[in-house]
Specification:
alpha+beta, ten-stranded mixed beta sheet, 3 helices
């Protein structure tokens, strides 16, 4: 990249690698979660700063749809939606994308921005299909898929929780 070029989607080449694999069953022990509400993301405050949650049980969430986004710094990365009115336990906060850019590294920000697009259904169609989960289409059982279901629009696998 030349010195004059502007990086449009920072961090993607660094620590965030998009993936299009189905959601594994069982879920991996080491994972990070982009828990979104609109264009905002839940962060866990800790001694090392603001981090993405590593467990949904700490938030009391039992999501109906899980999106596998790829990997963030070697850990599996998933996205789920935080239901409106769901209370957050102490130590967690909801941060909008604009404010998030000042609180996390560029790779984490890029992953969170992508997660909000996939979960809300605002990602471009080719991008959303490659995220292995389309919120805009229902899932159906598939005998030929290793996942529990396949989306009706793109045919890629996803696993409704």
């Amino acid at each position: 990249m030349s010195a004059d070029a502007v990086e449009v989607f920072p961090g993607e080449a660094a620590g965030f690698a998009r993936g299009c694999e189905p959601v594994p069953d069982p879920l991996p022990e080491r994972a990070r979660w982009c828990v979104t509400r609109g264009d905002a993301v839940v962060l866990a405050s800790g001694p090392d700063g603001d981090l993405l949650p590593t467990s949904l049980s700490a938030l009391g969430l039992a999501p109906t749809t899980i999106h596998h986004l790829g990997a963030l710094e070697g850990d599996a990365l998933f996205a789920v939606e935080l239901p409106n009115g769901h209370p957050l336990p102490a130590g967690f906060t909801v941060v909008g994308l604009r404010a998030l850019a000042e609180r996390v590294d560029p790779s984490t920000w890029a992953a969170c921005a992508f997660a909000t697009q996939v979960v809300t259904g605002t990602a471009p169609p080719a991008t959303a299909a490659s995220a292995a989960g389309r919120r805009l289409s229902a899932t159906r059982a598939s005998a030929r898929s290793t996942a529990r279901g396949a989306t009706t629009r793109c045919g890629r696998g996803c696993r409704p929780a």
